[in-house]
Design goal:
Low-confidence stretches: 1-21
CATH architecture: Up-down Bundle
Shape: elongated
CATH topology: Four Helix Bundle (Hemerythrin (Met), subunit A)
Structural class: mainly alpha
CATH class: Mainly Alpha
Largest sheet: none
Order of helices and strands: HHHHHH
Mean pLDDT: 87
Radius of gyration: 15 Å
Distance between the termini: 41 Å
Number of helices: 6
Strand content: under 5%
Number of domains: 1
Length: 143
């Protein structure tokens, strides 16, 4: 049985807990097993490395896009931005960030932009930490 959002669903993101609020905050910032799987699926480690580099380089833009769309109360733009973040985060093994993105997506779908702004604060905090961990623990080892 899922324990408060810690168990991933079929998309590699945490399933909601019994109250539907799982946000993945207990998950690791980066699951290196997912990165290894990505390398294996692509058949070339350099392609996975380039994907991770692009993910890290786009972090500020993604965070800004989320912040602006929520500030403008543009639910369509916020959904587009958060789904992009959730999927790309899952692909690089950023499990905690993928879980937080899923929580933000739920809030936006419900029209709860106040909750969305609260989750965005956590996304900003954990997003920067995730990028740093990817750069130090993954990209430096492949340089």
């Amino acid at each position: 049985m899922p324990s408060g959002g810690d168990e991933p669903d079929g998309r590699g993101v945490p399933a909601p807990g019994p109250d539907g609020t799982g946000d993945g905050q207990n998950l690791p910032l980066v699951d290196t097993g997912v990165l290894q799987d990505l390398e294996d699926q692509l058949g070339r480690a350099d392609l996975a490395t380039n994907f991770v580099k692009d993910y890290a380089a786009l972090w500020d833009q993604r965070e800004r896009r989320l912040a602006v769309s929520l500030a403008d109360e543009d639910c369509d733009a916020a959904l587009d931005a958060v789904i992009s973040l959730r999927v790309s985060s899952a692909m690089v093994g950023a499990r905690r960030l993928a879980g937080l993105a899923q929580a933000l997506e739920r809030a936006v779908r419900k029209g709860d932009l106040s909750r969305g702004c609260s989750v965005l604060g956590q996304i900003s905090l954990h997003g920067r930490a995730t990028v740093t961990e990817l750069e130090i623990d993954y990209l430096r080892q492949r340089a």
